[in-house]
Inverse folding.
């Protein structure tokens, strides 16, 4: 199961998406961010940084919701995440939406 996301998410059911910013030259390759990512969106890069370590990369961008746990666990402050509203979010069905869908269908 290594190399796969921990939990697969449906982007239309997630209200928020995330983006991760990585300062690869500050990273020492401890992989705390990769281990503590709840959705498995991060992975260690195959390339080396200036210090000779493997920095993280956002391997599964659709899985990131911008919770910033990666930034909280990073001892070198080399990574952080931000949330933004997901444009694909369908929202929870409401009675008004259900009636509008029925009217369009008929």
């Amino acid at each position: 199961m290594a190399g796969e996301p921990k939990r697969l998410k449906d982007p239309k059911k997630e209200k928020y998406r995330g983006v991760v910013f990585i300062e690869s030259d500050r990273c020492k390759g401890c992989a705390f961010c990769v281990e503590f990512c709840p959705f498995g969106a991060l992975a260690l890069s195959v390339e080396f940084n200036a210090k000779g370590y493997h920095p993280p990369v956002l391997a599964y961008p659709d899985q990131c919701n911008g919770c910033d746990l990666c930034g909280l666990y990073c001892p070198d402050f080399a990574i952080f995440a931000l949330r933004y509203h997901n444009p694909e979010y369908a929202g929870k069905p409401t009675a008004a939406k259900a009636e509008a869908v029925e009217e369009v269908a008929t």
